Amino acid sequence: MTADIVRLSSADADLVVRCRPYTEILYWGPKLRRFSPEDVVSLQRPVANGKLDVDLPLTFAMEYGRGQFGSPGIEGHRGGRNASPVFTTLKVEASDSSLIVISEDEQASLQLISELRLEPQTGVLQIRHTLKNLHHQAWELERLAVTLPVPERAVEVMAFHGRWLREFQPHRVKLEHGGFIQESRRGRSSHEYFPAFVVGEAGFSEQHGTVWGVHLGWSGNHRLRADVKTDGRRVVQAEALYLPGEISLGEGETCSTPWVYAAFSQNGLNGMSQAYHTYLRQSLIRFSGSQARPVHLNTWEGIYFDHDPAYIMQMASKAAEIGVERFIIDDGWFRGRNHDQAGLGDWYLDEEKYPQGLMPVIEHVHALGMSFGIWVEPEMINPDSDLFRAHPDWVLQLPGYQQPTGRYQYVLDLSHPEVFDYLLERLSWLLSEHPVEYVKWDMNRELVQPGHEGKLSADAQTHQFYRLLDELNWRFPHVEIESCASGGGRIDYGVLARTQRFWVSDNNDALERQAIQRGMSYFFPPEVMGQHIGHRRCHATQRQHSIGFRGLTALFGHMGIELDPIQSDDEELEGYRHYIKLHKALRPLLHSGTTWRLDMPDNTVQISGVVSQDQTCAVFLMAQLQMLNYSLAGNVRFPGLLPDTQYQVSLLDGPEIKTVREGGGAMRELPSWLRQPIVVSGDWLMQAGLALPVLMPESALLINIIKV
Ligand code: DGJ
Q1: Which CATH architecture has domain 296-377+430-443+476-592?
Q2: pLDDT in tens, 605-626
Q3: What is the atom index within ligand 1 of the atom nearest the CA of 486?
Q4: Using CA positions, which residue lies closest to atom 11 of ligand 1?
Q5: What is the CATH number of domain 5-35+57-283?
Q6: Per-residue pLDDT, 1
Q7: DSSP assignment of 129-156, as one string?
Q8: Pick from 150, 197, 182: nearest CA to 522
């Protein structure tokens, strides 16, 4: 390999990069069986008439100064000067799976350090750039993006929109003439625009097509872009979005982009998700306790702010009886917190509600064999709080303006050293004075005019949030943390590197959850997705679902119960017990296996499943979302099995399957495998498949496939 052309290689994907005199990704696609650096001559482009007289490489920095008229990778200036840098490579360090390139613009006195790692097994590309100011005068950085060229056949984008109670909704955009851009200035990864997208060949689907996934591992403001240049070439771009004046680099100072995580797949969206899941399991996810994710009971929708320790202990006893393994006291335990309009910031126990302190409850929970968790929202402050009355200047704000509150609260300025120290001290009090094993960390307001010392400060706020988490993780390594922000408002790999679980949504409606969880599964494995059985009548939608549909919908993730078990009738309690038991039995498979989402021609049926790593067993969930489009649901062909192996196929759970004779309405006769288990070959199941039953809308069943 000549040092000018570097090939990074993994099991299924390769990256070929030109490193001198400038950097350019020449190839990102399937693993090459044969390659020599001289091969890149085939890609030497013509220079088109009527344009600039030189070839324009798609460099790492996508410099405007080279004549790139699209979205540059770097923007900024030094008092209006040095505003159009062009970088030349100085130094290259490469191995089979990593590359570091240092390049400089002497005129502008700027250095760019680019780091790339192609993870050998999964082919997930981790990439970031760092800009360094080499001049005594500050350089005002406005944009620093990671740009990745993708082939011309990437003609569709799949991105995610959403809102509170409706996260991770995918949508498709055709990529032609111009491009696709998505920005968030909310100060968190956001419900509205999860910082990721997928580009791919026309019509890519769960099981088919070539796709390139891109995720920005960052919990703050962000910008993602997929561009078609006027010459037809395509790039994807991901960056932290900086507000005016936020980043000023003094001499020797640096600014790094967040890590971008990119994945290539020739096997549709499943191949991409499987690469990300494996990568996260190996490289990012760190559980403090055991790998087996404990089943939660969280008090929020059970009692809201109405905390009575005696009653909470009864709830804990009931929870333990049905198999819960971790009990969490949600919002309402601290001073002044009787409703959502007061108390945030006053992280002292409410001694009126808890006259004996928290210890009796915690000891009770521990005595029942469960671990204990507690809710906090450290970044926030209510105007009606002792903290605000003492320190109104601790708010993240710009002087002279009145901010709108959100949920009656403001945000604290974490860049203010006293604020940071106060929160660290209060959280350390909570975690050192009490044997707490888990913290649900909430964040219920977006940043509006975020100001520190008169300047906008959203980027620094996110860095300080990470610093606070890092410090707490260091002090209390046994404590697991869940990232919650009004449900799924802060879900990304940046925060996942510091936490163990996500509160996927405040919406526990099983029908809505089928869509939300599927959307999240593109980038996250099930064990970090909080999936909850909520009340029969969902608090968010008022819709009612059977315990079967709720239980099966919550089964695959990090399972939880979000209700008051004391108020539940016997049938409901029996249901919780049943699904917790089933979840525990399947948990080792679900949280280590390969996730598959299936393409179904009739989109009223949604099927996904997990196949064990050794391909000897699998479970697939069939969810009937609406009335079938046709009178039959057709056959399902299962992926990921061993063709030469005989499997038994049977119903593992399906409480609502009834023939007309038995009081059902959808089937006179069941498919034969539902009457008794069948044994067929893996090849047959993968090629011919299994006849699906006809289910009523908003119901589900679980299919068990096991090697005989
Ligand atoms: C919003 C969260 O998403 C809920 O689960 C709950 O913790 C409330 N905040 C508490 O105020």
Answers
A1: Alpha-Beta Barrel (3.20)
A2: 999 999 999 999 999 999 999 9
A3: 3
A4: 331
A5: 2.70.98.60
A6: 43
A7: EEEEE-SSS-EEEEEEEEEEEE-TT--E
A8: 197
